[in-house]
Amino acid sequence: MAKIVVINGTPSLVSRINAVIEYAENALRERGYEVERINVAELPAEDLIHTKFESEAIVKANGLVAEADAVIVVSPVYKASYTGVLKTFLDLVPQKGLAGKIVLPLFMGGSLAHLLAIDYALKPVLSVLGARYILGGVYAVDSQAVRNDQGVVELAEELRLRLNSVLEELAEETEHKMGRKAGQTGAAK
Question: Could you give the angle at the alpha carbon of 70 between the alpha carbons of 124 and 41, nearest 5°?
Answer without folding.
Answer: 70
